[in-house]
Design a protein that fits this description.
CATH superfamily: Ribonuclease Z/Hydroxyacylglutathione hydrolase-like
Strand order of the largest sheet: 1-4-5-6-7-8
Number of strands: 13
Shape: globular
Oligomer: single chain
Order of helices and strands: HEEEEEHHHEEHEEEEEHEH
Largest sheet: 6 strands, mixed
Strand content: 15-25%
Radius of gyration: 18 Å
CATH class: Alpha Beta
Number of domains: 1
Number of helices: 7
Helix content: 25-40%
CATH architecture: 4-Layer Sandwich
CATH topology: Metallo-beta-lactamase, Chain A
């Protein structure tokens, strides 16, 4: 019987083989990295500024959004009315209405109604805050994450704000259990990466010129997680380490770029309002 490690390496190698043919199939796919403001948390007595970007994927068969950022109701001083005083003091959002994803789409010539799929890394406040702006889209999420978002574990409940999605129960959800190739062409592949939350998922995007890009969500919170430092906030540390190892194996197999969601220095080194092709 194969060990989990052997199986994971084999799976990563198979994904790399698939990539060779996938890049040709991904002609016309574009990836945009857009800012969604930031927030500040305390990291061992030191303020830590975390950016909140989202990614837009323009695929010939439909427009895709990865995460929706902090809620529009939090912008421009509306934090306490939406989140409550405690969460606002803890996260200290730096957030204006122009940072909200609908404005970012408009800036690139898109609209919320044009978005076919919204993929969620997970349902924390800084990733699923604007779900309700997309009533016509299909919302792609791990099944366990969806149920967990409605009734999270007691000690992690503060990271979920029910008001972000309490009017969206009748939306169209694509509920996954594991990986999923969104268009069946290898260009946009959802990767199951649990740990940070029970149903966390990352995204592998293959571009004809840029190559492979892994959008980690919060499976990787800071660059030192890739070299063995435990993630500071996770519901299951063992799963988190397994997911980080999986991301690293795919990175190495495909020579992929790894985009760490909240890493300010890395974010500032990427281009914005301009497509990666």
């Amino acid at each position: 019987m194969k060990s989990l490690k052997t199986f994971s390496v084999t799976a990563a190698a198979a994904m790399a083989i698939t990539a060779g043919s996938a890049f040709a199939a991904c002609e016309g796919v574009k990836l945009y990295d857009v800012s969604g403001g930031s927030f500040v948390v305390d990291r061992v007595g030191t303020p830590w500024s975390l950016v909140v970007p989202q990614q837009i994927i323009d695929h010939p068969r439909g427009l895709v959004l990865f995460d929706t950022g902090l809620a529009d109701d939090v912008a421009d001083g509306g934090c306490e009315a939406h989140w409550g005083e405690g969460l606002c003091q803890y996260l200290q959002p730096q957030w204006t209405r122009d940072d909200v994803i609908d404005r970012k789409l408009q800036k690139l010539g898109f609209s919320t109604d044009m978005v076919k799929y919204v993929i969620y890394s997970h349902f924390h406040v800084d990733h699923a805050g604007n779900l309700e702006l997309f009533p016509k889209a299909t919302h792609v999420v791990q099944k366990i994450e969806l149920s967990h978002a409605w009734w999270p574990d007691k000690y992690f409940r503060g990271s979920f704000v029910l008001k972000d999605y309490d009017d969206a129960r009748d939306f169209d959800y694509l509920e996954l259990t594991g990986d999923f190739d969104l268009f069946g062409d290898g260009c946009v592949t959802i990767l199951s990466t649990p740990g940070h939350t029970p149903g966390h998922q990352s995204l592998l995007v293959r571009l004809p010129k840029t190559g492979s890009v892994i959008l980690t969500g919060d499976a990787v919170v800071s660059a030192d997680n890739l070299t063995g430092t435990p993630p500071g906030y996770t519901q299951n540390l063992t799963q988190s380490f397994d997911s980080i190892e999986r991301i690293k194996m795919i990175r190495d197999a495909e020579q992929a770029d790894v985009w760490i969601t909240h890493d300010l220095e890395q974010y500032e080194g990427r281009k914005h309002d301009e497509a990666y092709e």
